[in-house]
Amino acid sequence: MKNIFNFFAGTLVLVSKGSKAYYCWVLFLLTLMAIGASAYMQQLNEGLAVTAMRDQVSWGFYISNFTFMVGVAAAAVLLVIPAYVYEWGPIKEFAVLGELLAVSAIIMCMLFVTADLGHPERFWHLIPKLGRLNFPQSLLAWDVVVLNTYLVLNVTISVYILYSLYYKREPKHNFYTPLVLLSIPSAISIHTVTAFLYNGLGARPFWNSSILVPRFLASAFCSGPAFMLLIFLLVRKYTKFRIKDEAIQKVAEIMAYAMFINLLLLGAELFKEYYTDTVHLDSFLYLFQGLHGHSALVPYIWTAMVFNMSAFFLFLIPATRRNTKTLILGCILVFVGVYIEKGMGLVIPGFIPDTLHEIYEYSPSNIEIMLAMGIWATGLFVYTMLLRVAIPILNGDFHVADNGVGSFIGDAVFISRQVTDEVPEERPTSSSH
Amino acid sequence: MSDNKKNSYDQHRSRRKFLKGVAAGVGLIALPGKDASASLWEEFFQKHFKELSKDELKAVIGRLEAKYSSQFDKKVTVKTTLPIEGVRYGYALDLSRCIGCRRCVYACVKENNQSRDPQIHWIRVMQLDKEKGVDLSRAEHYYNPEQVPEKGHFYMPVQCQQCEKPPCTKVCPVQATWKEKDGIVVVDYNWCIGCRYCMAACPYGARHFNWGTPGLPKAEMNPVTHYLGNRPRPRGVVEKCTFCVQRTREQPGRYPACEEICPVGARKFGNLLDPESEIRYLIEHKRVFILKEELNTQPKFFYFYAT
């Protein structure tokens, strides 16, 4: 018990230390969080009328962001499988960073859903026994269950591993391996259930297509790793943590396959809708071409298409995949592309035209944008704090002091430009091929 | 100069609002503050309608009646009349008669205490082309001519279809909406968390959300209400047509407000389980259809052509 207290007390001291750049970054996030909080206060005071959502388009920017973040959270599994199932060293070294990203992403998911509720104070109605969780009937109830399970699993695994390393103990296989194995289907399930949530509605032909779940999974395995790679490249550049090139290459390679499947499934869906040309085509028309003069999403979806296609080739061609600059470009393209396609591009056309074929064009209000920014900042803040602790622990710069009570802090800077990384080592032959 | 004053007041207010927001911090949940009255806490901890014991229900109704009575300056009653045994309500609408006057829309608003500002309507009347038939993609929702009916058009009112297999109740994560024994789909406004999943699931656009605080003028408020029906709604919950549960469950029963007001007798209401009822006669003898039959929601709202 005392050990646990000392550990957490030590982490609090640790996160308060850092370079100027670290302080600036944290301050920047806190400012955005404050802006988001003030937007939320206004929404609580005046109701969801401050959003641009209305009866016709009853879910908007919040739920779009939620959907996208579920994908990011699920993608941690792409590190977990090679690390723990195949015991592949280069990825195992930093798999815990992926788990922490999942934790941050799930927290964002929960915040986005909370922001969307008309009565957030009634959240306890969702707690079994206390409230009346409609399980197993409602897919939203399923989502509550699987998201919380996934969160608890990832928190337990990552905190346990970091805690053991802090006390210079080897993490016990028997304890964390079952949890890790459980987290794999659980990652798949959060994304499957979220897709089912849309998929199961006969009222919305745009979502009511059996290809939706595989499309969700494929796009998640693009956007999540893209986000992780960007962060890992930043981590490698600005902290003392080393990540091997072959690990990054491996993730980029998986993304190329995932993007291929994603584009294939999208193509299959487009063919079916356009060729059969039923009344169900309307939502696709609205998204890709505009419908009866309404075309707010058209420029966005084509941007997403171009970005996703370009990124696919950047990841497919080994030369551009190995080049750090084109790799970064590819990651940004995928991230933005999938953010559009699996965010607003998925949610909004489900409501346009609405069930009585009325068209109400939606674009988020300022309050919605400010609040969403605040939630993004919160997620990044949580992740920054987690990395601030995890990276020094993995580096051996933060562990229990020799007296067994206090803690040793070897890294008081955290964020600073690393000179050693200027010349990336060439790896012409990789064991992974 | 009063304009200036107002501006500086607004500025002050918005700054205060901002500071309040900053102080409130992150992930904050709107729990009632310590200065909130005891009834607010009672409301917060109120159980699901179906789980209330007799005494608890009495207390809840007492609290609500007192609240609404003081809010609207008149004696407001909140009924909890149960479904009548052997009754399953059905509705039939004669498309050959409807003239699209929208009297039903406003009679419903008046009877059921919908918000006037922002406007909430439980009935939507669409204008359709006679040549094209029931093709919703050609529907005109906001028709506004000098006089109805317009040549070459017919009119189709849509409201909650009181489905036998309602997709909306299935998706609710907290069971805040359900189908009663008499077939009416109701919402417990004190249990709804406002996630709006039911609105995504409803194929008929029959569910409406209180995006802002409902604007219901005291003078226009109908004080005869039902807990599951037309009692005043709070902000942030979903509401819908209940076939006027506060009227139709009375014995002797009354017709729903939309049925009563219809100037051409296009609307018919009755007990589907009674073989002698007018609604059974219509279903058995007229050309009848239900909306979006392919979704297997099994509406108890029937459209027919009498002529």
List the helices and strands and how they pair.
The complex is a heterodimer of chains A (433) and B (307).
Chain A (H helix, E strand, L loop, with lengths): L1 H14 L4 H27 L14 H14 L2 H9 L3 H4 L2 H22 L22 H28 L6 H27 L12 H27 L6 H32 L5 H7 L9 H19 L1 H5 L1 H19 L1 H4 L18 H30 L2 E3 L6 E3 L24
Antiparallel strand pairs in A: 1-2
Chain B lengths: L1 H23 L13 H7 L9 H19 L4 E3 L9 E6 L8 H10 L11 E6 L23 E6 L8 H5 L5 E3 L5 E3 L9 H5 L6 E2 L14 E3 L11 E2 L5 H4 L8 H5 L5 E5 L6 H8 L1 E3 L11 E5 L2
Parallel strand pairs in B: 1-8, 2-12
Antiparallel strand pairs in B: 2-10, 3-4, 5-6, 7-9, 11-12
What report would you give on this structure?
The complex is a heterodimer of chains A (433) and B (307). Chain A has 433 residues and is an all-alpha fold. Chain A has one domain: Formate dehydrogenase/DMSO reductase fold (Up-down Bundle), CATH 1.20.1630. Chain A is built from 16 helices and 2 strands. Chain A has helices at 2-15, 20-46, 61-74, 77-85, 89-92, 95-116, 139-166, 173-199, 212-238, 245-276, 282-288, 298-316, 318-322, 324-342, 344-347, 366-395, and strands at 398-400, 407-409. A two-stranded antiparallel sheet of chain A has the order 1-2. Chain B is α+β, with helices and mostly antiparallel strands and 307 residues long. In chain B, the strands form 5 sheets. Chain B has a 4-stranded mixed β-sheet. The model of chain B is unreliable at 1-11 and 19-29 (pLDDT under 50). The interface between A and B is large, with 64 and 61 residues.
Tell me the span between the first and last alpha carbons of chain A.
47 Å
From the 3D structure, determine the CATH topology of chain A: Formate dehydrogenase/DMSO reductase fold
Which spans of chain A have pLDDT < 50 for at least 5 consecutive residues?
A: 421-433
Which spans of chain B of ≥5 residues are poorly predicted at pLDDT below 50? 1-11, 19-29
CATH H-level superfamily title of chain A: Formate dehydrogenase/DMSO reductase domain
What is the count of β-strands of chain A? 2
How many domain modules of chain A?
Answer: 1
**Helicity level of chain B, as a percent range?**
25-40%
Give the DSSP E fraction of chain B (strand runs of 2 or more residues).
15-25%
Q: Topology as H/E string of chain B?
A: HHHEEHEEHEEHEEEHHEHEE
